[in-house]
């Protein structure tokens, strides 16, 4: 007996995955719209954030979830490490290392409210790895800025247009050892 050909056998897997993601996002948005309590809104916002297509949109929804979690008082403290971790990662992805470091440190300050099981250890590890990564990237950005300042302050003919007539300017982002006194 010949098996009937099913239409979905010819649909690429990526299309079905994308369709499921869109349906899932719609369901969580529906949950957000129908939420009656702050806890329901918190939960819905957290899951809506996970299904956003842009980092900026994810950050916005994570911040909404954090706003509700902060209203829960002591009962909501166990949610804070994960929420601050998510927000920090968004800032890191947006190249906002100062904000990322600040939120990773906030996540770390609430990590004591996590359990000592797999989930708690995973969040703690994510916080520590993110903090190390963000600090390293922040140092790299500062070193890069200082190196550019040094190059342009020594070569007057190759100054970028934004730095004309600023040869003697001292850059605040550079460490003292990298600043040149003229």
Q: Top keywords for this entry?
A:
single chain, 182 residues, mainly alpha, Serine Threonine Protein Phosphatase 5, Tetratricopeptide repeat, 6 helices, disordered C terminus
Word description of this protein:
The protein is an all-alpha fold. The chain has a single domain, classed as Alpha Horseshoe (Serine Threonine Protein Phosphatase 5, Tetratricopeptide repeat), CATH 1.25.40. Helices cover 64% and strands 0% of the residues. The chain has helices spanning 13-34, 38-50, 55-71, 80-93, 97-109, 118-154. The radius of gyration is 24 Å and the shape is globular.
Kindly report how far apart the N and C termini lie. Answer: 90 Å
Give the oligomeric state.
Answer: single chain
Q: Helix count, per DSSP?
A: 6
- Helix fraction bin: 55-70%
- Overall shape: globular
Summarize the structure.
The protein is an all-alpha fold. The chain has helices at residues 13-34, 38-50, 55-71, 80-93, 97-109, 118-154.
């Amino acid at each position: 007996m010949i098996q009937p050909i099913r239409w979905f056998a010819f649909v690429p897997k990526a299309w079905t995955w994308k369709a499921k993601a869109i349906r899932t996002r719609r369901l969580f948005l529906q949950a957000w719209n129908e939420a009656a309590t702050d806890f329901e809104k918190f939960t819905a916002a957290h899951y809506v954030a996970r299904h956003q297509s842009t980092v900026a949109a994810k950050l916005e929804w994570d911040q909404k979830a954090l706003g509700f979690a902060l209203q829960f008082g002591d009962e909501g403290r166990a949610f804070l490490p994960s929420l601050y971790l998510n927000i920090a990662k968004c800032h890191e992805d947006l190249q906002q290392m100062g904000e990322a470091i600040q939120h990773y440190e906030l996540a770390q300050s609430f990590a004591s409210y996590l359990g000592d099981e797999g989930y708690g250890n995973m969040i703690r590890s994510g916080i520590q790895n993110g903090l190390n990564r963000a600090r390293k990237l922040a140092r790299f950005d500062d070193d890069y800025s200082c190196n550019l300042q040094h190059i342009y302050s020594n070569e007057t003919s190759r100054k970028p247009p934004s730095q004309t007539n600023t040869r003697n300017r001292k850059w605040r982002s550079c460490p003292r050892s990298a600043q040149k006194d003229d």
